[in-house]
Amino acid sequence: MKETRHLYTDLAWLWPVWGDAATEYAHYCEHITAMVRQYAKRPVNSLLDIGCGGGKNVLNLKRHFNVTGLDLSPTMLAQARELNPESTFVHGDMRTFRLNSTFDIVYLIREHEEKYSSGEDEYTMFACVKTVADS
Ligand SMILES: C[S@@+](CC[C@H](N)C(=O)[O-])C[C@H]1O[C@@H](n2cnc3c(N)ncnc32)[C@H](O)[C@@H]1O
């Protein structure tokens, strides 16, 4: 956990140079969008990106959805805001956050699911997700 904090705070300045948001992340986001369009049983407008990091996925997903990003690292959030000045970003921990809105889609990358895949963390993370997932 200490290493993760180090990576997303002291070393966060490296993120912008690791992959161009508009090109390298675009294909992946198109895939996500296509899956949502294929499987959603109703129109999808709003999307919450949990662990949004520097907002590179937000940059691509916002073409299709009204995206809100949530992240634990203020440094990463600052990058996300710079890249997406018109989007909404929230500082929070995916295991404890509460928001006053719900979303048609909640997007959580597998990395987080693996990191918090045991015990209390996993339970509280999905309990938080449930509070914002429009059912
Ligand atoms: C691999 S990066 C995400 C990259 C991002 N999807 C993008 O498009 O650039 C992982 C992010 O998860 C965040 N994170 C890690 N643990 C978290 C937690 N408990 N709650 C919220 N965000 C967390 C980190 O701060 C980091 O920004």
Automatic annotation (TrEMBL):
<dbReference type="GO" id="GO:0032259">
    <property type="term" value="P:methylation"/>
</dbReference>
<dbReference type="InterPro" id="IPR029063">
    <property type="entry name" value="SAM-dependent_MTases_sf"/>
</dbReference>
<keyword id="KW-0949">S-adenosyl-L-methionine</keyword>
<keyword id="KW-0808">Transferase</keyword>
<dbReference type="Pfam" id="PF13649">
    <property type="entry name" value="Methyltransf_25"/>
</dbReference>
<feature type="domain" description="Methyltransferase">
    <location>
        <begin position="48"/>
        <end position="111"/>
    </location>
</feature>
<dbReference type="GO" id="GO:0008168">
    <property type="term" value="F:methyltransferase activity"/>
</dbReference>
<keyword id="KW-0489">Methyltransferase</keyword>
<dbReference type="InterPro" id="IPR041698">
    <property type="entry name" value="Methyltransf_25"/>
</dbReference>
<protein>
    <submittedName>
        <fullName>Methyltransferase domain-containing protein</fullName>
    </submittedName>
</protein>
